[in-house]
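Heme exporter protein C (Sphingobacterium arenae), 221 aa
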Amino acid sequence: MRQSWWKILGLVMVAASIVVGLLGPVPALFLLHETIRNVYFHVPMWFAMFALYLISVIYSIRYLSNGRINDDLIAVEAVNTGIVFCIIGLLTGMQWANITWGMAWPNDAKTNGSAIATLMYLAYLVLRNALEEEQKRGKIAAIYNIFAFPVMIVLMYIMPKMTDSLHPGSGGNGTFGDLDMDNQMRPVFYTAIIGWMLIGVWICTLRYRVRLLERKRNLID
């Protein structure tokens, strides 16, 4: 029970953010209207993705320093889990963009950067599957992963701030916190972010444990 407190906390926080996000009060905003509720679901997906990719980079660095296969397995499962959150983030963003901007995929720097970053991490998984020798696969994938993370930050965070963008917080636009969220929304928003990050880490640990069992079975066979 002591080791599971953060998992229970994550479930409670996500459940609370979903209920309040769907039923709680939101400010009456021009153009956004009730779609502002999507900020509780769309934005936390990206925070969870960033957290998982960061975990992956940390364990890739650890693998290069000590050669422990378990660190490599954690790195790849963090990416696998992060891509799931990335896809959900893209889908919820497309739905939101279609309602507020009139098209599901506008020519926007952050949107395009997110797509490129997604392809970049999918290429990481393809690269791993293309290499059969375990140590070679782990080292090459770890090096790729370490370089991919800062490129992803540039594509999704830095470049949109330097160019025109429809997204809040990019292209000179104010952030949601500055413009759209009131004091009733902020606690729910931060609860959703922390909750989904905890759930993401939990899913990653489950995938890691499954990967360990599969590896032990393959060694026995």
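The chain has one domain: 5-218. The chain has a mean pLDDT of 87. ok done for today
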